[in-house]
Design a protein that fits this description.
The complex is a heterodimer of chains A (260) and B (233). Chain A has 260 residues and is an alpha+beta fold. In chain A, 26% of the residues lie in helices and 35% in strands. Chain B has 233 residues and is of the alpha+beta class. Helices cover 29% and strands 29% of the residues of chain B. In chain B, the strands form two sheets. In chain B, strands 1-2-3-5-4 form a five-stranded mixed sheet. A four-stranded antiparallel sheet of chain B has the order 7-6-8-9, sandwiched between helices. The chains are: A alpha+beta (260), B alpha+beta (233). Chains A and B meet through β3 and β6 of A and β3 and β5 of B.
Chain lengths: 260, 233
């Protein structure tokens, strides 16, 4: 990150402005969601575009053994890879800590909200359950990957249809897809609020992400219930900050949930 | 010959007919150059970054620049099970042959100590992913404004049910005795920069296949040129 850019963004924030002229709580428009972008191979898929930021997510469904402590529940796995294709600063190699954090935040939102009814993913208790793999890939990172990734993951889950499963043979026929959807009961939408120089802002650009003091990502479901949070950045947040940021995130999530 | 052209393939194409193609450039804003190449159900993205300084430093070559190609299938893009994320032996080899396929059109001597990075990502796959990746990468290189001696076009050719055909689908690749030959060419000279083959084939059949491959590549080349001209008109 070039120092002058950071200084510029921060002094702009102090003066009450953003680099692209948006209001602090204004999202880039339109937020675009396309379903079935990889429909041949993925059971569910979606592409989310927010400004120039573009993220794709896909769902694969497999049958496997449940975890011993939840023998009658399906399994969820969320993966994210910050592709070097999407940002000149991302590097090839084993998953970076940033991609792990991204995947785990999305994972927690989905898991803790129990938005998928995992008991309905049980085929035979203790032996066979459906495993839901969500994989998230940014195609272009122009800031706000977290929120875009969350929307893409939820859209891909909504899009998913079970493949045909032969219980006798224990085999999935990926060529044939049924009309059965995933048991999705809620939509835990993640919204990230940044704090730069005492300002709260939504939908950051790449430069804003690189200039933040702190960020708070909040996943909420209907009725403004919080289901996952993650604080990031090097500065501390006051209790008043957290109050305000949760309010902003909840309000924005209610808007975005309607897009799905 | 006429009869040959009539006999249908599983998707109704003629032996020398490639699947429907869609090409777009500038699809990845942060990249120096980028392209989307769809052929049938295969969807490839390519992004070019550079020439930029090469790190770590010991990889630098003071005589000429380095071309790095990375090929990756998104884990939900395969047919059947989820593909494990991260590099595999297959993806690394494909990265290598993509690099070799593109190398002849670049003047890497112009970029000492630098690297040109090409990232190819597959969003959905049917067949011909390495060829789609090469076609996307060539357009992305041109989109990045990197001087090139020619474009590169690629397509697979092969033998299915005893007949030489261009641009095999996954279904055709899986036919018993099918032979798959991915080919990339320098369209103006008609020289070959990628050639792989698996299966059993007579030399005469190879000759016929390569001829058909060059015709197929040239069709793709025209489309690549058209898209680039549109973008920079």
């Amino acid at each position: 990150m070039i120092r002058v850019v950071r200084d510029h963004i921060r002094s702009l924030a102090e003066k009450g402005a953003r680099e692209d002229g948006r209001d602090f709580l204004e999202y880039r428009k339109p937020i675009k969601i396309e379903y079935g972008v990889s429909s041949k191979s993925a059971e569910g898929s979606a592409r989310v575009t927010i400004g120039d930021t573009e993220v794709v997510a896909g769902v694969k469904l497999e049958v496997g053994e449940p975890f011993p402590d939840t023998p009658d529940e399906g399994v969820l796995m969320v993966g994210a890879e910050l592709l070097p294709l999407s940002n000149p600063e991302f590097e090839s190699g084993p998953p970076s800590i940033d991609s792990i954090e991204l995947a785990r935040i999305i994972d927690r939102g989905i898991r803790e909200s129990k938005c998928i009814d995992f008991s309905k993913l049980c085929i035979k208790k203790g032996e066979k359950v459906w495993m839901v793999f969500i994989d998230i890939y940014p195609l272009n990172d122009s800031g706000n990957l977290f929120d875009a990734a969350s929307l893409a993951a939820l859209a891909a889950l909504k899009d998913a249809k079970f493949p045909e499963y032969d219980a006798k043979e224990g085999k999935i026929n990926y060529e044939k897809r049924t009309s059965k959807c995933l048991p999705l009961t809620k939509l835990p939408v993640l919204v990230t609020v940044l704090k730069i120089k005492k300002r709260y802002l939504l939908d950051p650009t790449s430069n804003e992400v690189d200039s933040l003091d702190a960020r708070l990502s909040v996943a909420t479901i209907d009725n403004n219930i919080i289901c996952a949070m993650q604080k990031g950045g090097e500065e501390a947040l006051t209790l008043e900050d957290i109050d305000a940021m949760v309010d902003i995130a909840t309000k924005q999530a209610n808007i975005m949930r309607k897009l799905l | 010959m006429k009869d040959k052209m009539k006999t249908s393939r599983s998707d109704g194409r003629k032996p020398d007919e490639v699947r429907p193609i869609e090409i777009k450039t500038g699809v990845i804003k942060r990249a120096d150059g980028s392209a989307l190449f769809k052929i049938g159900k295969t969807i490839a993205y390519a992004a070019v970054y550079g020439p930029r300084e090469l790190h770590p430093k010991f990889l630098q070559n003071p005589e000429k620049g380095v071309l790095r190609c990375n090929y990756n299938m998104m884990s939900f893009s395969g047919s059947g099970d989820r593909v494990r994320p991260g590099p595999s032996r297959r993806s690394r080899e494909i990265g290598l042959v993509i690099q070799k396929a593109l190398m002849p059109v670049l003047n890497l001597e112009q970029y000492p100590n630098s690297v040109i990075d090409i990232f190819v990502e597959l969003l959905q796959t049917d067949s011909g992913t390495r060829c789609a990746g090469i076609c996307a990468a060539a357009v992305a290189l041109a989109d990045a404004g990197i001087p090139m001696k020619d474009l590169i076009a690629a397509v697979s050719v092969g033998r299915v049910n005893g007949r030489i055909v261009v641009d095999l689908t996954k279904e055709e690749e899986d036919v018993e005795d099918a032979v798959d030959i991915p080919v990339a060419i320098l369209p103006r000279k008609g020289e070959v920069t990628l050639l792989q083959l698996d299966g059993l084939l007579k030399k005469e059949e190879l000759q016929e296949a390569l001829k058909l491959g060059i015709i197929g590549c040239r069709k793709i080349y025209e489309m690549q040129k058209k898209v680039l001209k549109e973008r920079y008109k």
